[in-house]
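User: What would this chain look like folded?
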Amino acid sequence: MDNRPIGFFDSGVGGLTSIPHLMHLLPNEKIIFFADTARTPYGSKSPDTIKTFTRQIGSFLVKNNVKMIVIACNTVSATCLDDLREAFPDTPVIGVISPTSKVVANTCTSQDNIGIIATKVTTSSKAYEKTINRKSSERLNLFSKACPAFVPLIEEGIIDNEIMDLTIKYYLDDFIKEHDINTLVLGCTHYPLLTKNLKRLYPHIKVISSSQEVAVAIKYELAKRDMFAGPSDLENVFYASDLSENFVNMIQLILGKDEHELNINFKNLDI
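Assistant: Here's the prediction, encoded as C-alpha cells.
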C-alpha cells in the first residue's frame, strides 16, 4: 500500500478531465494537480521551451512526494515523456498518448477512417500515428488536424455556445468530409470538454478520449508496482501558476463542486 498522492500536470485546465475517471476507478487515490495556467497554451511553443517548463513542474511534483507523475497533456506526452523519465528515474511517469493509441489500435480496423485532432505540436510530432501503427496489427487510415484555437477558447470557458460551434465547424467540416471520418480521436486533454458539441454536430462519429484511457493506464501501473492507496485523510490538492477565476470555475465544472472536497492552493514557479 502506498498512500502518497499521484502527481498530475497540464499546461492548463484540460488535464482536469482525467480526474473524474480516476476518482471513479480508484476512489482511494489522492492527487496533486498542477496547471501551468500562466504559460498556457503549450501547443504553439517550441519543444525546447516545453521541456524547460515540464522539468520545472516535474521537480515541483517530486518535491511534494508524489508516487507517480501523470502527464495529463498530449503536447507534453508527445515531446517530453522520455525526457521526464530520464530526469526523474525513481518516479514512474505516464503519458496519455500510449493508452489512447492502444484503444484505437484495438477497436479500429482498416475499414475505419480515423481523424486525430490535437495541438500544432502534437500534430507535427506524428506521435499518435507512430504509436497507433506500432500497436496495431494492420495499417490503419489515420488523418491529423491541428485545431489551435480550441484550447484558448476552452481556457476562457467558451464551450457551450455558438462561438465554439462555429470554430469546430471551421476546423472539422471540410476535414471530416474530405477523409470520410467515422472515428475522432481527441488528442488533447482539453478536447473532451467539447464532446457534447462534437456529438451534436457530427452524431455519426465515434469519439475516443485520451482523458478516459489514462485512468486505466494508471490502474495498470499501480497494480504492477503494488502501489495502490488505502483509505486516508489526505486531500486532493490543485495548484496553478496563475490561480485565475477561470481555473477555479473549470475545477468546479469538471469535478462538480458539490461532489468533491477540493483544497485549492496557489503556487508560483520560480521561472
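The first helix runs from residue 19 to 25. If you want, I can go into more detail on any region.
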